[in-house]
Amino acid sequence: MGTTTPPRTLAEALRARGDESLAGLLRARPDLLSPVPNDITQLATRAGTRASVVRALEHLDRFALQTAEALAVAPDPAPYDTLLALLTGDGQGDGDGRDDAGAAITAALPGALATLREQALVWGEDTGLHLVRTARELLAPSPQHPSPTGLGPTVAEATAGMSPGRLQEILTAAGLPATHDPVSAVTALAGLFTDRTRMAELLDTAPVEALSVLDRLVWGPPYGEVTPNPAPPVQWLRDRGLLLPVSTRTVVLPREAALHLRAGRAHRVPEPVPPALVAAAERDPQAVDRAAAGQAFTALSTVEELLKLWNNGGPAILRAGGLSVRELKRAAGSLDVTEPVAAFWIELAYASGLLASDGETDERYAPTPASDEWLDLPAQDRWTHLATAWLAATRTAGLVGGQDAKGRALSALGPDLDRSAAPEVRRRVLALFASLPPGTAPDPRTLLDRLRWERPLRSPGPGGPAAPGEASDLRSRLALWTVNEAELLGITGRGALSSQARALLDEGPDAAAARLAPLIPEPLDHVLLQADLTAVAPGPLERPLADMLSVLADIESKGGATVYRFTPGSVRRALDAGRAAADLHAFLATHSRTPVPQPLSYLIDDVARRHGHLRIGAASAYVRCDDEAVLNEILADKRSAALRLRRLAPTVLAAQANPGSLLEGLREMGYAPAAESAEGDVLITRAGARRTPPRTPPVPVPEGPPVPDATLLAAAVRAVRAGDTAARAVHKDAPDTATAGSLPRTAPAETLATVQAAAMTGSAVWIGYVNADGAASQRVIAPVKVEGGFVTAYDHTADEVRTYPLHRITGVAELADEQPA
User: Fold this and answer.
1) What is the average pLDDT score of the chain?
2) Is pLDDT at 686 greater than 70 in this prediction?
3) Are the CB atoms for 769 and 808 separated by under 8 Å?
4) Euclidean distance between CA atoms 735 and 715, whole angstroms
5) Distance (Å, rounded) from C-alpha 521 to C-alpha 379?
6) Out of 42, 163, 406, 550, which could bridge 37 as a Cys pair, Cβ 3.0 to 4.6 Å?
7) Is residue 267 a contact partner of residue 256, using CB atoms and an 8 Å limit?
8) Bridge-based pairing state of the strands 562-565 and 534-537
9) Can you tell me the distance from the alpha carbon of 30 to that of 704, in angstroms, rounded to the nearest whole number?
10) What is the mean pLDDT of residues 481-509?
11) Nearest CA-CA partner of 526 in 557, 555, 551, 548
């Protein structure tokens, strides 16, 4: 093909591209690489398949998509000037009061067209632009799938099958000369609608009500229902072909007439320029960093509290998978957050590999061994671990509480929460945040407008692409969830992107941790004990101190300072964990900056004195106590009726409840019993840890094939070029060669002689080859060596040296002297 000859097909257009341009196509549409096409023709065929075209259209910005939509309603092929006129209009004005953005469209159209060409959605020179057939079918108008432009079919399409007599009636009513040739009649009617002067004269004679009907149809949808006896204005429009019948009850405004009424524009509002981000507020960048760091510390505390909550084994897993609504509410109450926020923290811990199912028969959620390693990390490294996992996760906590396609509720940690677009949307939202000056918080509305412009089309259904509004709904929701989750996680502070988050996006976790470290308060080794049986932690505590204090006391309030309250129950919990009263006194004296209050010392001694006075064992269960009066008191208490106690001996009571229930029941009555073993020893219930077996975090679900790297792209382009050279090689017909397109067939002796001669002369030959799996193919090879029943040759099709068994070569033919350019 000469360099000045316009391409006749998409394959020819791709063949004329350079290697860098082909690599750009494969980078923009990585689905074309699975598997690597054999040649350019196969690449062009694959690029025109419905699934691949739909995926490519989904990744266009609004103006590139509007350009493709304009080409879908333009003649095929369409000159560049025709396309430009469809986007800018004819300059005549349509009376809708809108400003013409012609200059911006003229400046932006070459870039949009270059994008469409690069992605092989448009091919051809500017004198004749072709939209690939599949894209035209997806975007062109039809009664089942109206065009995104709101235009209907052409006059020729709408009048197909109309009787010649009816065409003559329309021509006469429109004031056109009669003709008995249907083609000429259609041409004359279309010519009337595209002639601004004659069309204006015709509309000047129209009733006002008829013009109102046209106003309702002009910007789409162009279809309307009519009765068997339409109103006079509608009948006037039908008589003159301004409304053409689609069925007995449906009419359509033809495309040429609509374009006249629109002043030649395919779109009501062309959008060549992306919407600008508007700043909602401008804050001090240092204040933003401090606020984000504070929220990051809160995020770490919340995840640590969640791990501690499920430390001894978390809630059971539903049969369908996931967390029950009751358990989610319980977790939300324990974390002191709302249920959607609790679902976010639970999903984040799961995506980070800190929580998983234990795999037991009674399957439950529990922390993983990796959670212990995570807890030992510095605070800044723990935060970067969470933030990195959040950026890459496809599990979407915002869906929890909604319903799937079958109407089933979506639960936290359950199936069907993966949305492959989530990581891309998160990164794009944060990139838009980063495009603003430090400390600037964007207006969420303009942020959504920008995202909808960048990706207006999502998930076309069976009938074609969805409408722009509903198509981008998932991306809009993902964007809003991203804004909220980024604030919870400390990615943003006071609505603006923090410097540590900028470092995470641009430089990686190490740089982000270095930025965050000075902003995280150092953990403290002390608390302040108060006389009202509380302890105040004026900041974050060292982990051993926090762990022990969480056993000895209950958290009463959180914030900049955490307040712990000591109660008989909390002290008993520490004694149950094997701590003696002397240990507790020493612990408090060591870690308090204030003297240990006397009421707290009395509380510990009082609970310790009564702790273990009662003993619980298995009878089903029994209670034993050296003090008969205590047992008499228990039997006389009406609250013990549910335990069904009876006396076995002066110091022993038996119960039909199990030991655990009996233990809890007596504690609720105000006693401090201790469990004992079969040997009579007191059982110590330490605040132990239940861990799952080693687990890997959930793998994100990718959105389509991964983007290939430069090495793979270069290899793929070489393979496609080599295969194309081999596929287009012209060969001489061998004596026994079958019809064109089939494998060459020659006798074994002739095959051997031909490849030996080619090896001696260094020429290339055309062979048919059947591999071990029985798959047949045609290849162009340059034999190098023939020995031992094998041919070693450079395979032009695969662009590498290969060895072929002679018995698998079906035949051989010489190449013609002249090969295609």
Assistant:
1) 85
2) no
3) yes
4) 37
5) 9
6) 42
7) no
8) antiparallel
9) 8
10) 95
11) 548
Residue pair 575/508 in contact by the 8 Å Cβ criterion:
no
Find the angle CA(237)-CA(240)-CA(244) to the nearest 5 degrees. 70
Instruction: State the residue for tokens 């009463």.
Output: 556
Mean pLDDT of all residues in 464-476: 53
Listed residue (571, 487, 579, 479) closest to 533, CA to CA: 571
The larger pLDDT score, comparing residue 484 to residue 696, is at 484
d(CA 242, CA 87) in angstroms, rounded, equals: 23
CA–CA separation, 348 and 351 (whole Å): 5
Residue 154, token pair as written in the block = 């052409």
Tell me the average pLDDT across 152-179: 85
CA distance readout (Å), 348 to 300, 307, 674, 697 = 11, 12, 38, 10
- To 10 degrees, the CA torsion angle through 604, 607, 610, 616? -130
**Could you report the per-residue pLDDT of 185-234, keeping only the tens digit for each?**
888 888 888 888 899 889 999 899 999 999 999 987 888 888 888 889 99
Asked if 296 contacts 516 with a C-beta cutoff of 8 angstroms, the reply is yes
Q: Which residue has the higher pLDDT, 463 or 3?
A: 3
Range 387-390 contact pairs with CB under 8 angstroms and sequence separation of 24 or more: 387/489, 387/490, 387/491, 387/501, 387/504, 387/509, 387/512, 388/504, 388/509, 389/348, 389/351, 389/352, 389/353, 389/697, 390/348, 390/351, 390/352, 390/426, 390/485, 390/489
pTM: 0.75
CA nearest neighbour of 659 among 719, 626, 617: 617
Query: What residue type is assigned to position 261 of the chain?
Result: L
Considering only residues 463 and 212, tell me which one the structure prediction assigns the higher pLDDT: 212
